[in-house]
Design brief:
This protein has 136 residues and is mainly beta. The protein is built from 1 helix and 10 strands, in the order E-E-E-E-E-E-E-E-H-E-E. The termini are far apart.
Length: 136
């Protein structure tokens, strides 16, 4: 199965077979809103510390959420630091915790696939980053 493109909330799907069949499914995506707050602080001449908090509303109502995109509201907390080794060389370190809500799923699949109901107890991701920047 290949996703062939997204236009609005329509998701095109192509089934690979000797007789190709295509169809679209309306996923009922809705507009979201985003709010963020962040700060940077020069701790010492060589160190810059940063922190941020982000909220994104869910692009799906609970009744429209499916198991292939169990996306709920998202809250991110990020921490970072930059070490200015020289004027032309900077090392960066960051960590972001993403809490993606409980993502309750109540998907009706019909007689062939059945129904899927449940929620994710821990719908979270952890991001770690190390970077280096040279200026020429």
């Amino acid at each position: 199965m290949n996703l062939t493109g997204v236009l609005g909330s329509q998701v095109g799907i192509t089934l690979n077979s000797t007789t190709t069949r295509s169809f679209e499914q309306d996923r009922n995506f809705k507009d979201t809103w985003h709010a963020a707050l962040g700060a940077r602080y020069r701790y010492r001449p060589q160190w810059i510390l940063s922190a941020g908090l982000v909220y994104d509303s869910s692009p799906l109502d609970d009744g429209d959420r499916t198991i292939d995109l169990p996306l709920d509201r998202q809250i991110r907390l990020g921490l970072g630091a930059e070490y200015l080794k020289r004027d032309d060389f900077v090392l960066g370190f960051s960590y972001v915790y993403l809490n993606a809500g409980d993502a309750e799923v109540d998907q009706s699949g019909g007689p062939l696939t059945g129904d899927i109901k449940g929620e994710f107890d821990r719908n979270a991701l952890h991001f770690f980053n190390v970077s280096a920047r040279w200026r020429f």
